[in-house]
Amino acid sequence: MSEISFERPDPLDFLDIDSLLSEEEILLKETVKSYVDKELKPNLGDWWDKGTIPHAELAKAFGDMGMLGMHLEGYGCAGTSATAYGLACLELEAGDSGIRSFVSVQGSLAMFPIWKFGSEEQKNEWLPRMATGEVIGCFGLTEADSGSDPASMRTTAKRDGGDWVLNGSKMWITNGSIADIAVVWAQTDEGIRGFIVPTDTEGFSAPEIKKKASLRASVTSELLFNNVRIPDEFVLPGVASMRGPLSCLNEARFGIAFGAIGAARDCFETALSYSKEREQFDTPIGSFQLTQRKLVEMMVTVQRGTLVALHLGRRKDAGTLSPEQISFGKFDNVRNALEVARTARSILGANGITLEYPVFRHMSNLETVFTYEGTNEIHTLVMGQALTGLNAFT
User: Fold this and answer.
1) What is the spatial distance between Cα 151 and Cα 141, in angstroms, rounded to a whole number?
2) Neighbours of 262 (CB within 10 A)
3) Which of 2-6, 62-66, 275-279, 333-337 shows the lowest per-residue confidence on average (mean pLDDT)?
4) What is the pLDDT of residue 3?
5) What percent of the chain has pLDDT over 70?
6) Average pLDDT of 301-328?
7) HEC letters along the chain
8) Please, are residues 98 and 218 in contact by the beta-carbon 8 Å criterion?
9) Which residue has the higher pLDDT, 86 or 4?
10) Could you tell me if 294 and 271 are in contact, meaning their C-beta atoms sit under 8 angstroms apart?
11) Cα dist. 312→228, 246, 305, 372, 377 in Å?
């Protein structure tokens, strides 16, 4: 019997996960990765340091690449698979969580509710221009006093003739200050309704939140509504309950399950490269047993998380993915990505806190990803209820 020989595993794809992807998926993944590597990574340290991004330039670039609302069908959207969208999120967040958030908010939180619950007139009016990046959207749900319990929101919308009048505020809104429209959820006498609010409407303002220590390559804002008058044709007709905003959040959480692993992968690859170049005691630190253990733990975490995300993507494409399974991906991949970032920082030592390397930037960003789109605790309770059938929220 002849001996079977095996090639040494690729350190950057130890389980050969790319072999599970189609040629089309690999092409999309590599296209996004190339753009992130060439156009974004050289600038991200400066953008993060200055707390700004060239949003108009990025919106056009992402629109040209077909990445805005890419998983939606029709109305100028690319109509890719959910898995393809997830892979794009992974590569974007390998650049920066704020960049992935920009794309996620546009597609999953602003475009998706119009696509899912909007009228044909609303879809035709907004989605084609949002797909090209001409129109930027944001999603107004969270309030200063209602984060994990969004149903307790205080923002209201009341009928006044053929119009609606909005009053209240929203907090921690990605893209808020740069948006052309806001999809806003408010209490009404008919239940929770969604409103398309052009940001140039009288009474609307969106002051940017400054002095952030995380997600600095991203615009975060407060939304204020002072007797904002909206015509009835700007109301999303397809939903009048919390099912509306929660379905949007599930779309975004799905992307995060992929995206967080992108950040973790970038931290691992940075630490691996650094460990082979940095010498102490006349030898690369990668030759030390403790360092090798850290590298192995990071690699296993990244590979396992990628498999989890890919499995969720296949289930979503098959129409069998449950909200509880999305919670699994968001819960586990984000907490593990944060641990990878912290471990990578320890390998880089003092260099790990500089923006010359991406590790601390990822680590800081992931602290926010850990709590937004459902805190780790909330996703724990979602899965706990799935296990026991008992509601721990009340």
Assistant:
1) 9
2) 32
3) 2-6
4) 66
5) 99
6) 96
7) CCCCCCCCCECCECCCHHHHCCHHHHHHHHHHHHHHHHHHHHHHHHHHHHCCCCHHHHHHHHHHCCCCCCCCCCCCCCCCCHHHHHHHHHHHHHHCHHHHHHHHHHHHHHHHHHHHHCCHHHHHHHHHHHHHCCCCEEEECCECCECCCHHHCCCEEEEECCEEEEEEEEEEEECHHHCCEEEEEEEECCEEEEEEEECCCCCEECCECCCCCCCCCCCEEEEEEEEEEEEHHHECCCCCCCHHHHHHHHHHHHHHHHHHHHHHHHHHHHHHHHHHHCEECCEEHHHCHHHHHHHHHHHHHHHHHHHHHHHHHHHHHHCCCCHHHHHHHHHHHHHHHHHHHHHHHHHHHHHHHCCCCCHHHHHHHHHHHCCCCCCHHHHHHHHHHHHHCCCCCC
8) yes
9) 86
10) yes
11) 40, 18, 11, 20, 21
The pLDDT, as a whole number, for residue 239 is 84
Mean pLDDT value across the chain: 94
Q: For the chain, how many residues are written? A: 394
Q: In sequence order, what are the beta bridge partners of 280?
A: 283
Residue 2 is predicted with a pLDDT of 60
For residue 130, give every residue at least 6 positions away whose Cβ sits within 8 Å of its Cβ, in sequence order, or none. 68, 69, 106, 110, 111, 114, 136, 137
pLDDT at 121: 96
Active-site residue flag, 233 = no
What is d(CA 361, CA 182) in angstroms, rounded to the nearest whole number?
28
- Token pair recorded at residue 102: 């920009």
Beta strands 204-205 and 220-231: pairing type?
antiparallel
Q: Can you read off the two tokens belonging to residue 229?
A: 């008058």
User: And the tokens for 7?
Assistant: 């090639």
**Active-site residue identified among 93, 202, 373, 377:** 373
If you search the block for the tokens 């289930």, which residue do you land on?
315
Quick check: pTM over 0.85? yes
Q: Which residues pair with 170 in a beta bridge?
A: 223
pLDDT at 279 over 70: yes
List of domains in the chain: 17-132 (1.10.540.10), 137-234 (2.40.110.10), 243-388 (1.20.140.10)
